[in-house]
Every structure is written in C-alpha cells, then in structure tokens.
Amino acid sequence: MLSILLLYIIHTTDAYSASSVDYRHMPILKKKTSRKARVDSTRKKTALADNSTVWSCNEWDPLEEVVVGIVDGATVPEWSPEVEATTPTHAQEFFKKYGGKSFPKKMVEQAARALDNLVKTLTELGITVRRPRPLNFSKKYETPWWKSRGLYAAMPRDVYMVVGDTIIEAPMAWRTRYYESFAYRELINEYFAAGAHWLVAPKPSMAGDFYNTWYDIHTPILYDEKQFVIRNSEIAFDAADFTRCGRDIFVQKSNVTNTMGIEWVRRHLGSEYNVHVVEFGDMHPMHIDTTIVPLAPGKLLINPTWVKDIPAPLNSWDILVAPEPVKPFDLGLYFSSDWLTINVLSIDEKRVIVEEQEAPLIKALKGWGFEPIPIPFRDFYPFGGSIHCATLDVRRRGTLQSYF
Ligand code: DAV
Q: Which pLDDT tens digit goes with each residue over 125-139?
C-alpha cells in the first residue's frame, strides 16, 4: 500500500506533464511476478467455443466479434435526480437547453464519424463488427408510474455483459434507458438462435420511491455509509459496473447498480464464478471502466484519482498507474469525468485501441509492453463514454480460467 501511495505521489507530482519522461519507467507496481492461470476442465464449454457465436470470458482474449454503438437519434434526457447524480455540474446548462430534444446535429455527426472510424479500424483488424438499430428515442413513453423518452444506443457496454456463452441483459436504472435494450433485440435474437444463453434481469419499477430523496450530489457519502441515488429496494444494475477476469468478476455499487442487482448476477452465475464487490474513491460512481481496466492476465490499469487501494485479489496483479488525461477537452463532457481516457478496448493481450490524443497513456502502454492502436475518438466523449463503453465484445477466442 505504501509503495502504491509513493508511486502515486511521484506520478501526480511530476511524471506526466514533462515531455522528457521515459515512459518505460512508468510505474508498474509488481506484486507477484510468476502466476500461472489455472485452466479449468470442469465445464465442457471451456475447451473453446469454436462454433458458438457468443463466447467471451475476460477483457483481453483475442477479439473476433464486437458490437459497436450508434448515435443516430440520440436524445438528451430531461434533467432528473438519477441523471444529475452522475453528471458534472457544468453540464446542467446543456441539459436545461436540450433536455428532451435531440442532441445537436453537429455533435451527432462528429460522434458518428468517430464510431465509423472505430468500425473501420476493427474491420481492418479482421474483427466482425455488428451495429444496433436506432429506436425512435425521442418518442414519449409511459409506464404506470412515470413518463420519459429514450436516450440512445451508443453504449452497448452499459446494457449487456457477455459471460462465457451467456448474454446478460441489464435492467438499467435510468428511466430514459428503460427500453434501450430493444435497439439490440434483432442482434440478440440472432445470437440466441445461434445457441447463446440469454439472461434478462428484472427491471425495477423506477417509481418515485426507487430514488433516494435525500441523495445530495454535492455531498455524497462514501465508504461506511455509502449512499447512492438509487435505493436497494428493487434489482438494478448497468452491465458497465462489472468487469470480467475469467472466473473472477469485479463489480462496484454505484448510482446505477445496487446490492440486489449484484446479488441477482451472483446467483445466476452460480458457483463457477466469484463475484467480488469492490469500492473506490469516486464520489459519483457509475460504470467501473474508467476506474479499473484489466488489460491482460496479471495487468490492471488504474485511475489513480479514484483508486488509492487495490482490492483483493487484484492486489496480486501488476498495477499500471494511468497518466493524467490530456487536457483541455475541446468538447463538453456532459455525462462523465475526464477519465474516459482510460476507457480502452483490448484486441488481445498486447494490442489495445486508445484515443490518439492521449500521448502519455500511449507512451506508458508501450513502456509496459503493449502495442497501442491510436484512433481519434474525442468527438464521441460528449455522449458519456469512450472506446470500451461504445463496444461490447461478443466473441473472444479463449477459455474460462482463473487468473488469481
Ligand atoms: O464519469 O468516468 C463514465 C461512464 C462511462 N460509461 C466516469 C464514468
């Protein structure tokens, strides 16, 4: 712990602002050097799902098929407590101006270009790319308890998690995302027809008492009395609060993921998996993939602002401390922190797609033995995610293993 703090201090005080830094010496906090993954033989499927369309056990096995989101028809949510809980305060203006309306045309066009370029990059790498279909996100809908409009189908990572040959569909926790999964329905039907398992979590009512009236965005309470904008009265989670390392899956409680939601996933995955609830220092948590990012067996990229202590069993891995994001951002970040910069997508244990302006991160990754593939992606940031959020790995070639 002390050494982590020490390196963190060195890192935050001088390392990344100086262009002369030798990134081969960037912090890698080694805990254990030799670690052999235990290959499991108890499950027939673990031998490699050659013929299955859906198979992905971690964040780094060689990528074969991926869903990339779209921004067509993206609609700005109306300002509401659950949206406010994770939105930077500077974004209020934006929501007041555009709430319930389409995202500005230029923003959509620029983000669509960034996505198309990501598709091109993935295709050139030999990876099959699938896209969702837009819904009429601006159409008003009504449940017995409330009215809302849709958001977008830009972030498949938020809605789905693939665990082995099972697609888990998240219930979500924002009213504006209640019907979002239908944008992917055609694809998921196809994967189901091809043999995938498909688990759909029960949706919370999202009625008024599902949201904490006492939640205060300015003084959220962390640690012992952690409080979030959603209550633990009904099952809720976003898939992006989970990250997969084979038999060990890590999840954080957040403003969109509660204990009942985590328990639902744990029970459905059963004794073959260990679901670890981890906690960090993000005061407005929503989605784990700008906090910790497993890049390869034994290698964890962390955001040093929120990660001060590495939870077990991840503390047995080498810890790669991410450099500060490159600022300023030309476009507004309306749904997120600036740590979207570490929201990268692994093609395999070496190659990782990263935003091209993040020179310090790119250098650091090279120093750590990775092969970064830089692409322009900042135009997508205003929608609240980066390359990991915008994608869902449907098939990675590998086996179900334990890495701890
Ligand atoms: O604010 O760093 C971003 C959410 C990504 N889906 C953040 C979380």
A: 999 999 999 999 999
